[in-house]
Automatic annotation (TrEMBL):
Lineage, opening ranks: Eukaryota, Viridiplantae, Streptophyta, Embryophyta, Tracheophyta
Protein's UniProt keywords contain Protein transport: no
Localization in the cell: Cell membrane
PROSITE patterns: AMMONIUM_TRANSP (PS01219)
Gene name tied to this protein: LOC105135417
SUPFAM superfamilies: Ammonium transporter (SSF111352)
Coiled-coil ranges from the UniProt annotation: none
Pfam families linked to this entry: Ammonium_transp (PF00909)
GO-annotated molecular function: ammonium channel activity
Full protein name: Ammonium transporter
Naturally occurring in which organism (per UniProt): Populus euphratica
InterPro entries associated with the record: Ammonium/urea_transptr, Ammonium_transpt, Ammonium_transpt_CS, NH4_transpt_AmtB-like_dom
Source domain of life: Eukaryota
Length: 476
């Protein structure tokens, strides 16, 4: 069969494209997308009270859609395009056929693949921020917040750390797959936004039981397995580093989960399934900046740290620090992402193997990418200390950027719509905001009845006070 004369084989499959790399990168991107849709849709929708299930899940759906549109419109080029200033690229569209079908700036696959892969990373960052705002943020405010934060906050950290022209990238900061750009950013920005939005109702803060723990585990499972694409796609190639990254990810996560369960059992007498989810998440987050540049034994060490330090900050320190108690973070995103992401960056600065870093970054420079542990071992202490200083500097930069930009964005959005729902809407939940209920049953002869004047949600009071929400009761 002859091909049409206007369709040349080398145009559809150019010589520079590696089909294996392209196939894996698209698969990895899809796995990351599945972490959000449906992973975090299920997790958020099931971990809140019945009356917040739809709103929580819908915040995820909206953010995923809005971020992708903004990403191809201007976000990708601001994050990975031509330099405008030392921390930001020039706004430009990523819609042109010639641009999308050309070779990506890193990797042997089309730019379209890179745009999608990086786009789902941007999506999950906004979705993680939503976790700090469940149960009280005005949905109209969320509609405005998402594109503004993507444009004026995410692009700055992504360009600075991941773009070859970014200033932190040039210094040699190690962030393999987003411990800084995604998790530390989301944890700090979410906590900041939660401060400005304000808390849930007193009743919700006192008792916020999950509506379906089994379904919550399904969402958590999608999140865990999807991380194979999250970290395995970091090298932009089907390589030995990609394989190591996947293995390290799951080993660290399993160790972190078991550590958290051990601490729960020792101090509270019972292993908690919600505690297991917490430990799972902190392990996934902690290994992310280091996944392909540390040895497997180091991943186990990182799992022990990620399963214990965030456990302490959440279960012990949280109730001792007044400011932490003041800010309402329903599912503990600050502890599981900001704390765990920062820890991952620091531990990366200690455990990073010089040889693995050179394989990942494709550089011969021996003055960069040297973990402090190896610097001390090989008599290159100054290089190891330099790397640790860069890692700490990157953490401080991400914290500063996200506190400042998120505060400004919340102030700006508040000029147009209230950041927090009204008291009546907070009492009713989904039916008042969307006119829908997650668990209502009806047929053609029945219609939705507004629950504003009835006591449809009084049955929630019968929930045992021993039911735990992912953040609040774990921190009591």
């Amino acid at each position: 069969m002859e091909l049409p004369s206007n369709l040349l084989p080398d145009e559809a499959s150019p010589v520079w494209m590696n089909k294996g790399d392209n196939a894996w990168q698209l698969t990895a991107a899809t796995l990351v997308g599945l972490q959000s849709i449906p992973g975090l849709v299920i997790l958020y929708g099931s971990i809140v009270k019945n009356k917040w299930a739809i709103n929580s899940a819908f915040m995820v759906f909206y953010a995923f859609a809005m971020v992708l549109v903004c990403w191809v419109g201007w976000g990708f080029r601001m994050s990975f395009g031509e330099k405008l200033v030392f921390f930001l690229g020039k706004p430009a569209v990523a819609l042109d056929e010639k641009f999308l079908l050309g070779q990506a700036f890193l990797g042997y696959f089309p730019t379209a693949t890179m745009v999608f892969f990086q786009g789902v990373f941007a999506c999950i960052t906004l979705i993680l921020i939503a976790g700090c705002l469940l149960g009280r943020m005005n949905f109209r405010a969320w509609i405005m917040f998402v594109p503004l934060w993507l444009t004026f906050s995410y692009t700055i950290t992504a360009f600075s750390i991941w773009c070859p022209d970014g200033w932190l990238a040039k210094l040699g900061v190690i962030d393999f797959s987003g411990g800084y750009v995604i998790h530390l950013s989301a944890g700090v920005a979410g906590f900041t936004a939660a401060y400005w939005v304000g808390p849930r109702t007193d009743k919700d803060r006192e008792m916020f039981p999950p509506n379906n723990i089994i379904l919550m585990l399904a969402g958590a499972g999608l999140l865990w397995m999807g991380w194979s694409g999250f970290n395995g796609g970091g090298p932009f190639a089907v390589s030995t580093i990609s394989s190591l990254a996947v293995l390290n990810t799951h080993v660290c996560t399993a160790t972190s989960l078991l550590t958290w369960l051990l601490l729960d059992t020792c101090f509270f007498g019972k292993p908690s399934v919600i505690g297991a989810v917490q430990g799972m998440i902190t392990g996934l987050v902690c290994i992310t900046p280091a996944a392909g540049v540390v040895q497997c034994w180091a991943a186990i060490m990182m799992g022990i740290v990620s399963g214990s330090v965030p456990w302490y900050t959440m279960m012990v320190l949280h109730k001792k620090v007044k400011f932490l108690r003041l800010v309402d973070d329903p599912i503990a995103i600050f502890h599981t992402h900001a704390i765990a992401g920062g820890l991952g960056g620091i531990l990366t600065g200690f455990f990073a193997v010089p040889k693995l870093c050179r394989l990942f970054y494709m550089v011969p420079d021996w003055e960069k990418y040297i973990g402090l542990g190896y610097g001390l071992q090989n008599g290159r202490t100054s290089a190891g200390l330099r790397q640790m200083g860069i890692q700490l500097g990157g953490i401080l930069f991400v914290i500063f950027i996200n506190i400042s930009t998120t505060s400004i964005i919340c102030w700006f959005v508040g000029l147009f719509v209230p950041l927090r729902l009204s008291d009546d809407e907070l009492q009713i939940g989904d039916d008042a905001i969307h006119g829908e209920e997650a668990f209502a049953l009806w047929n053609d002869e029945e219609t939705f009845q507004n629950t504003k004047t009835n006591s449809a949600f009084d049955a929630e009071d019968s929930y045992s006070m021993n039911s735990r929400s992912l953040g609040d009761v774990q921190m009591v």
